[in-house]
Amino acid sequence: MGLSEDPDLQPLLFGLFLSMYLVTVLGNLLINLAVSSDSHLHTPMYFFLCNLSLADISFTSTTVPKMIMDIHTHSRSISTVGCLTQMSFFMLFGCLDSLLLTTMAYDRFVAICHPLHYKVMMSPRLCGLLVFISFLISVSVSQLHNSMVLQLTYFKNVEISHFFCDPSQLLSLACSDTFINNMIMYIVGAISGFLPILGILFSYYKIVSSILRVPSQGGRYKAFSTCGAHLSVVCLFYGTGLGVYLSSAVSLSPRKCAVASVVYTVVTPMLNPFIYSLRNKDIKRAMWRLLSKTVSSQSLCHHLECRLEKAVKVSI
Fold first, then answer.
1. pLDDT tens by residue, the chain, 316 residues
2. Whether pTM exceeds 0.70
3. How crowded is the C-beta side of 202, counted as CA atoms within 13 Å?
4. What DSSP assignment string belongs to the chain?
5. CA-to-CA distance for 171 and 165, rounded, in angstroms?
6. Most buried of the four, 78, 81, 165, 301, by CB within 10 Å?
């Protein structure tokens, strides 16, 4: 159904979401380029950050390009295969976002509570294994949702009160009994949402307890500042996501829930690069180095082109 039926708003929505999508992709790619170009940032924390940036790009790419195309073509139809594909990737990268935020909380817990054993505990092998396990769990959750939806019966030409194929909306449209599927969905939701939140809360409980034992105020500030950006992203992601799904249970307007879903599907992935770059001196320093390298390489190419032109003129 999209976000609005007003034809006058369609050009505004098209420009707004196109610009937000471009900012999201460019901002997250810039973080990956900055981290990969600076050897000082080749640490577990920034390794997880790069994977989170790639997951954010993929997460927003499952919904926004289709919505932009629908606004441009004035068509909101989607095939069954397309709907299932969109739902699968949405669940995959949404769950991956959640699990990566949990691994980043564990990384901060080890760095602050066990600093002397950090390099041993957070080895490159373990970091890669954590990301791989997070991806496998996300794939399993996605396919479990897919299998549930495939077992349900629907009417043809149904209307989905959202701007993408949201799993909860598809289950609410089913004609058959959905009790067992709802129970499975709650179990999967606990695995992909509730347990990661518990892991993050436990990690920050240990972190805060460890920071409060630091005698100097400067030491406490320095220890907590390493968690500030991650904690901001966690609050933004889980706060908006849980707020939308809890409000959808009591709201009478599916359209309002769809509009609220824009916050965690579009706005949050767009803000993540700004949160990490503005609150992190290492990231800002790496971005300035990357920018200076780009500018210097362009000036060098221009200088070589000028010398080549002069050489050609002299030879002629």
1. 777 777 788 888 899 999 999 999 998 998 888 888 878 888 898 899 999 999 999 999 999 999 899 888 888 888 888 888 998 999 899 899 999 999 999 998 998 888 888 888 999 999 999 999 999 999 988 888 888 777 776 666 778 877 888 877 777 777 666 666 667 667 777 777 788 889 999 998 988 888 888 777 776 776 677 777 788 888 888 877 776 666 655 555 666 677 777 877 888 888 888 887 766 677 777 777 777 766 665 555 555 566 656 555 555 5
2. yes
3. 10
4. --S---GGGHHHHHHHHHHHHHHHHHHHHHHHHHHHH-GGG-SHHHHHHHHHHHHHHHHHHTTHHHHHHHHHHT-----HHHHHHHHHHHHHHHHHHHHHHHHHHHHHHHHHHSGGGHHHHT-HHHHHHHHHHHHHHHHHHHHHHHHHHHTS---SS---SSSS--HHHHHHT-SS--HHHHHHHHHHHIIIIIHHHHHHHHHHHHHHHHHHT-SSHHHHHHHHHHHHHHHHHHHHHHHHHHHHHHHHHH-S-HHHHHHHHHIIIIIHHHHHHHHHHHS-HHHHHHHHHHHHHHHHHHHHHHHHHHHHHHHHHHH-
5. 10
6. 165
Looking at this protein, which amino acid is placed at residue 45? M
Structure tokens at 247: 């409000």
Are 55 and 275 contacting, i.e. CB atoms less than 8 angstroms apart?
no
Q: Are 3 and 14 in contact (CB under 8 A)?
A: no
- The sign of the dihedral angle between the CA atoms of 216, 217, 222, 226 is positive
Q: How far apart are the first and last CA of the chain?
A: 67
Instruction: Give me the residue label for tokens 């800002």.
Output: 284
